Amino acid sequence: MDERATKHVGVRIRAARVASGLSQKEFAHRLSISKQQAWKYENGGSELTATRLCQIAELLGVRPSVFFKDVDAPDGVAARTGAGRDEKPDILEVYGKLDRSNRDLLLSIGRLLLEVNSAAAPVPVLSRGAIGIGPISSRIEQEKGRSIVIG
């Protein structure tokens, strides 16, 4: 793997670990490696064998292929799709801390936004107190039986 790919895989490993709710210390312990080695894997400082990638995938409950998603995307595509951006681990960390009901709600919102995006509809606008996304708001309320409030 080249250096860019190694870093990309590391970012995806960290995101999957955070989403699973494992601390880096627990992650390292379960893999029988040092915390420093786990840090190197997540930051692209150490290449992984196929065997180790499969062990990590199994531990985190994902397929090994998720670590390679968008690895060969050109930089412009990566920027537009969010591949390799630092926000992914943050989003996954927040998701991991939500209760089941709010996780379901967040996934519903994400899926609806994807529908809007693929239909080339206007970009949702946030307004004080609620998400101002027109028909999507009512669909979310129907789906979850509650309003979404920001702030």
Describe this structure in words.
This protein has helices at residues 3-20, 24-31, 35-42, 50-60, 75-81, 87-97, 100-118, 135-144, and strands at residues 125-127, 130-132. It has 151 residues and is mainly alpha-helical. The protein folds into 2 domains: 3-97, lambda repressor-like DNA-binding domains (434 Repressor (Amino-terminal Domain)), CATH 1.10.260.40; 100-144, no CATH class. A two-stranded antiparallel ribbon has the order 1-2. Strand 1 (125-127) and strand 2 (130-132) form a beta hairpin. Helix 7 packs antiparallel against helix 8. Residues 76-85, 121-137 and 146-151 have low confidence and may be disordered.
CA-based shape? globular
Please report the distance between the alpha carbons of the first and last residues: 44 Å
Q: CATH topology of the largest domain, what is it called?
A: 434 Repressor (Amino-terminal Domain)
Under the CATH scheme, which architecture of the largest domain would be assigned?
A: Orthogonal Bundle
Computed Rg: 18 Å
**Count of DSSP helices?**
8
Mean pLDDT: 74
Strand fraction band? under 5%
Largest sheet: 2 strands, antiparallel
Broad structural category: mainly alpha
Could you state the CATH homologous superfamily of the largest domain? lambda repressor-like DNA-binding domains
The helix-strand sequence is: HHHHHHHEEH
The total number of structural domains is 2
Helix content: 55-70%
